[in-house]
Amino acid sequence: MWPKGTRRSALCQTLCVLAIALAPTLARGSTEGTATEGGPRYNGGFWGLQLHLGVTSRVDADLGEGIGPVLGVSGRIATLMSLVDVQVGVRAGTYDGPEGASVSRWSATAELHAHPMFLRHLYGSNRWYWLAGLHVSFGAGLEVVGVTAPGIDETLPGFGWQIGAGTDIPVGEVDDGWGLWLGVDYTLKFLAVHSAAPRLDDFDEHVLVFTLAYRNNDIGFAQVPRPPELDDREPLRR
């Protein structure tokens, strides 16, 4: 658990570090992508492994409650132009609840991501891949909450669901068969289990996570037939 006096400072530092890390990526995104011979071009289809780090807090948090850290790992797979984009992962988080309660939460969830700007994959540069990476998400899964308070030590399993939004940003070259990506996602989680601790009637939470991901563009086992536009190794003209 983070000391209460340092949580806000730690969050600001995390956001500053992310902004510095993304600056060169966004600058590079203004140049057009080029074809490479080292592996499949990125076209929105991939399989990947992801590491998540962020913060979480209760939706109905009162004065004196705080935010806490959340850490997770996941696997993700998407078809051509990310028309189908599925993520399965596990996360663990902890934070201070009301009246001295300490809350820990473990989640195993599956998420479906929808990309409203998926056609931007056709333009073939990092800037357009970033726009195509904007997504909304819906997920559900198994949740286990541990609550420790004076005279209380309980474990509460339940089924939760969530909605969210986020984006994925390529880091450097991603058209050479694989690439590294950074992401940021906000999730609103809903879990209607009741604790014996005072004022803990549910465990609805805000979650903000930053993601470092490895993506491999070779998804021949999950490909749908390519449109003619994607058979050309050169990106479309804008």
List the SSEs and their pairings.
Elements: H1 7-28, E1 46-58, E2 68-78, E3 85-96, E4 102-114, H2 126-133, E5 135-149, E6 152-171, E7 178-190, E8 205-216
Antiparallel strand pairs: 1-2, 1-8, 2-3, 3-4, 4-5, 5-6, 6-7, 7-8
| CATH architecture assignment name | Beta Barrel
And the CATH topology? Porin
Distance between the termini: 50 Å
Radius of gyration, whole Å: 20 Å
Sketch the topology as an H/E string, one letter per element.
HEEEEHEEEE
State the low-pLDDT regions, or none: 21-36
The biggest sheet amounts to: 8 strands, antiparallel, barrel
Helix count from the secondary structure assignment: 2
Broad shape: elongated
Work out the strand percent.
over 45%
CATH class: Mainly Beta
- Mean pLDDT figure: 82
Helix content: 10-25%
Describe the strand arrangement of the main beta sheet, using strand numbers.
1-2-3-4-5-6-7-8
Short key terms for the protein model shown above:
238 residues; mainly beta; Porin; eight-stranded antiparallel β-barrel; 2 helices; 13% helix; elongated
Give a brief description.
With 238 residues, the chain is mainly β. The chain has helices at residues 7-28, 126-133, and strands at residues 46-58, 68-78, 85-96, 102-114, 135-149, 152-171, 178-190, 205-216. The longest helix is centred in the first third of the chain and has 22 residues, at 7-28.
Task: Write up what this structure looks like.
The chain is mostly beta strands and 238 residues long. The chain has one domain (4-31, 48-230): Beta Barrel (Porin), CATH 2.40.160. Helix content is 13%, strand content 46%. The chain contains 2 helices and 8 strands; from the N terminus they run αββββαββββ. The protein has helices at residues 7-28, 126-133, and strands at 46-58, 68-78, 85-96, 102-114, 135-149, 152-171, 178-190, 205-216. Strands 1-2-3-4-5-6-7-8 form an 8-stranded antiparallel barrel. A hairpin with a 5-residue loop joins strand 3 and strand 4 (102-114). It is elongated and about 60 Å long. It starts with 6 loop residues before the first helix and ends in a 22-residue tail after the last strand. Residues 21-36 have low confidence and may be disordered.
